[in-house]
Amino acid sequence: MDNENTYEDIHGELLTYRDENRAAKSKKFFQAEKGGYGEGDKFLGIQVPILRKVARKYKKISLDEAEKLLKSEYHEERLLAVFILAEIFKKSDGETQEKIFNLYLKNTKHINNWDIVDSSAPQIVGAFVQNEDRRILYNLARSKNLWERRISIIATYHLIKQNDFEDALEISKILLNDGEDLIHKAVGWMLREIGNRDIAAEERFLKKHYKKMPRTMLRYAIEKFPEDRRKKYLSGEI
Fold first, then answer.
1. Of the candidates 176, 167, 230, 175, which has an alpha carbon nearest to the alpha carbon of residue 203?
2. How far is the C-alpha of 148 from the C-alpha of 208, rounded, in Å?
3. How far apart are CA 72 and CA 110, in angstroms?
4. Each residue's pLDDT tens digit in the chain (238 positions)?
5. Which residues contact 134 (CB under 8 A, 6 or more apart)?
6. For the chain, where are the alpha helices, taking DSSP H only?
7. What is the distance between the alpha carbons of residues 201 and 151, in angstroms, rounded to a whole number?
8. Would you say 85 and 120 are in contact if contact means Cβ atoms under 8 Å apart?
């Protein structure tokens, strides 16, 4: 990794892309107003394609500098950090991957919106635990922190892509009664992804649990079902 580029270099470049109008829209979109799930977050107003371009440019920065980005007060800098960390993780040896995994878990309070979670949990957490102890997923699923719970289920997307569904289904059970809509959507999404690969596996789960699932979770899970099948689930006739 190249230690020449620093957080200050990246921050300075990002400021050249700053857009106050877009920042105001992002504040509303990510519910950063008082009482929202992203309350207090700050935005530069930079589009994701630009962030991905910057991530490619700085993909060889040190983990220390990446961690500075991850601790930024600005949403886009934290998102950029996970883009970079995921890219480094993908191309690194086991030792570096473990360092990134530990850095990520140490900084979950900064991985604090759904786009940051969804852009990194499968690529880092899911990928690392594939051949390691997976108990961390269950610890995260039982966390009081919304974003750690979302990390737990979204991380299983990597495993689902390997046709490994067990942990996704078990964590879905843990989160069935979660009070947060963002968790309902995440669980429903992962169940749908299981169904895309093995509809029988998804339906075995649904038949046991669909009547007590939050409505949003169920709707996400059955989104791609045939219309008549969806109606039966929604009306409780399965």
1. 230
2. 26
3. 8
4. 445 789 999 999 999 999 999 999 999 999 999 999 999 999 999 999 999 999 999 999 999 999 999 999 999 999 999 999 999 999 999 999 999 999 999 999 999 999 999 999 999 999 999 999 999 999 999 999 999 999 999 999 999 999 999 999 999 999 999 999 999 999 999 999 999 999 999 999 999 999 999 999 999 999 999 999 999 999 999 8
5. 167
6. 7-15, 20-29, 48-57, 63-70, 75-90, 94-106, 114-118, 127-129, 135-141, 146-154, 156-161, 166-174, 181-197, 199-209, 215-221, 227-235
7. 22
8. yes
C-alpha 139/C-alpha 137 separation (Å) is 5
Say how far apart CA 52 and CA 80 lie, in whole Å: 7
Question: Where does residue 55 fall: left (phi above 0), alpha (psi -120 to 50 degrees), or beta otherwise?
Answer: alpha
| C-alpha span between 193 and 156 (Å, rounded) | 10
The three-state secondary structure class of 74 is strand
Task: Dig out the tokens for 142 from the structure.
Answer: 């039982």
CA separation for the pair 122, 131 (Å, rounded): 14
Domains of the chain: 1-115 (1.25.10.90), 120-238 (1.25.10.90)
CB 86 within 8 A of CB 120: yes
Q: What are phi and psi of 85, to 5 degrees?
A: -60, -40
